[in-house]
Amino acid sequence: MSSWGHFTLEQKVGQLFMCGFHGQHVDEQIMRLIQDYHVGGVIYFRRNVESVEQLTRLSAELQSLAAKSSELPLMISVDQEGGMVARIDKDGITRVPGSMALGATCNPDYTYQCARILGTELKRIGIDMNLAPVVDVNNNVLNPVIGVRSYGENAENVAVHGAAAIAGYQSSGIAATAKHFPGHGDTAVDSHLGMVTVPHEWQRLEQVELRPFRRAIEADVDAIMTAHVIFPAIEPEPIPATLSRNVLHKLLREQMGFKGIIITDCLEMHAISKPYGVANAAVRAVKAGADLILVSHTLEEQIAAIDAVVDAVRHGDIEEQIIDLALERVVEWKQKRCDSQSSQQSSDQSSQQSSEQSRMPYSLSSVPEKLLLDEIASKSITVVHNDGVLPLKPEQNVLVVWPEVVQRTEVDEPWSHSDSLGMVLGQIKNHVREHKITTQPSYEEAERITKSVMEGEQVIVCTYTSAGVLPKGQRYLIERLSVNHSLIVVALRNPYDLLEMPRPGAYVCTYENTPAVVRALSLLITGELNPSGSLPVRLS
Questions:
Q1: Any bridge partners for residue 460, and if so which?
Q2: How many Cβ atoms are within 10 Å of 245's Cβ, its own excluded?
Q3: For residues 60 and 126, is the Cβ–Cβ distance under 8 A?
Q4: What is the mean pLDDT of residues 448-468?
Q5: Do 425 and 522 meet the contact criterion of CB atoms below 8 Å apart?
Q6: Do 529 and 520 touch, CB atoms closer than 8 A?
């Protein structure tokens, strides 16, 4: 650490924080954090994105700003998981499939190819770290936060696909982040909203939850993100993994031998901020062994957290050696992944680069990539059962009920350019009508749809669940329609929807409603595509 001995304590601590801000340009929030508090990392959300061109310029501007106050470049990150969690929803970024869709293909080479494509694109717009892949093993049917963000419920399959994604990202020059350690898959509460416990004994954790993380470490993953989840078998105190030295240092560092960056999930999530407070939690996370502290949203919380860690070092609550060791790992990571040239640019050079970038072509998705996405979609869609209602009878009319996703959350970010099934199906088949609903339809709306079905009409009901349980209005609609019709039900996200409805005539899982999936689904239900996806979870 002698080479960084000239850093002040404030500069050292600032490098250990990754923060978000609310603008699409350099605003007062991020300017203060970089110039006055020396933060070493930035995280993008959809609120920061107007276009790929704009985001590229923003990355260059941020690096130029950091270069004026530090000899170290920023690390710029994003949650671009694919599928239904994607912060950059603009032309120029390939709409890669999500994890469970890839898991359903049983082909980890698809996972590698998607990660490599996406990593290359992110690197071109100035992003150094993707907070992906999710390597949680989703084995809880009520999990409201992981679900299709996981490759499935089989730990070995998750481990294989996770390692493939890590190789894809890191071969493109971007850091991968395996999350959420030690495992968020067997939970029935969203840690964005409250405290979560995984009560299993050590032997079970070793066989299931920890298995993909061990494989990720073998794959030399750059970073591992912590979970705000309590694990009594590892930590006897009732504290989440993010704040536990037994979890982060003794287990992850010493026992599992991880040498990379340990990054916390956002400390503003309620599982942390409500019981502990963000500033206090930042101190506890550093003491537990975290190298990077993520505070994504609020300037006051970000400043308070940085100040709290500085004060804890000054008062002896945190040994400065802990800060130095974390900084050493961060510096090593930046030297490996960050574009050092961007950190050396003057303001004039940055402006020139931004001008040049603004004239670059941003249609990065090539024809071969589109063909790849169509191929993956055709290999992922899963027909769970079919009682003879598929394919559609060409001579009969079709009614499609399509749920529109309008409420965006941290883990539910639909693509803005996705076509509905009725629109796509109507292009290849006559006499298709569509009734669009919200994901929370009223009982009255369900009754109106039920009464509107014409005699002999084939009915396709698409469901959409993002919170672990099929919304009551969607369930009621299926129950009412099932009385007189043999339905085709398509689960557009959560495969577990089947568990909450009468058995339909056919049940199809797509795991997401991205454009490639909708195209493939229309071909499947008209008989032009043979289904080959394998269900990555058990429906029992």
A1: 400, 488
A2: 17
A3: yes
A4: 92
A5: yes
A6: yes
> What average pLDDT score do residues 339-348 get?
42
The Cβ of residue 171 has, within 10 Å, a number of other Cβ atoms equal to: 14
- Give the DSSP per-residue string, 110-145: HHHHHHHHHHHHHHHTT--EE---B------TT-SS
3-state secondary structure at position 332: helix
Report which of 2, 5, 18, 29 is spatially closest to residue 330, judged by C-alpha positions: 18
What token pair was written down for 505?
A: 């005539």
Q: How many CA atoms lie within 13 A of 349 on its CB side?
A: 11
* Residue 191: both structure tokens together: 């840690």
- DSSP-derived secondary structure letter, 172: T
Coil, strand, or helix at residue 197?
strand
Q: In the structure encoding, which two tokens stand for residue 205, read together?
A: 């954790």
How far apart, in whole angstroms, are the C-alpha atoms of residue 85 and residue 408? 10
Among 79, 190, 265, 291, the one annotated catalytic: 265
Contact criterion met (CB below 8 Å) for 373 and 94: yes
Q: What are phi and psi of 435, to 5 degrees?
A: -115, 115
The tens digit of pLDDT for each residue in 53-98 reads 999 999 999 999 999 988 899 999 999 999 888 999 888 899 899 9
- pTM tops 0.90, yes or no: yes
Residue closest to 225 by CA, chosen among 143, 319, 290: 290
Asked whether the beta carbons of 290 and 249 are under 8 A apart, the reply is no
- Among residues 238, 230, 249, the alpha carbon closest in space to that of 287 is found at 249
Of residues 492, 495, 494, the one with CA closest to residue 535: 495
Average pLDDT in the 126-140 region? 95
The mean pLDDT of 430-441, rounded to a whole number, is: 92
Query: What's the CA gap between 198 and 394, in Å, rounded?
Result: 50
> Which of 509, 465, 508 has the alpha carbon at shortest distance from 488?
508
- Degrees, nearest 5: CA angle 409-411-416: 70
Catalytic: 265? yes
**Strand 41-44 to 17-19 pairing:** parallel
Q: How confident is the model at residue 387 (pLDDT cuts 50, 70, 90)?
A: very high
Local structure of 7: helix, strand or coil: coil
Q: Is 301 exposed, middle or buried (0-12, 13-18, 19+ CB in 10 A)?
A: buried
> For 411-540, where are the alpha helices, taking DSSP H only?
421-426, 443-452, 472-482, 515-525
Is 131 within 8 Å of 79 (Cβ atoms)? yes
Sheet hosting strand 432-438, strand order edge to edge: 382-386, 506-509, 488-491, 458-463, 398-404, 432-438
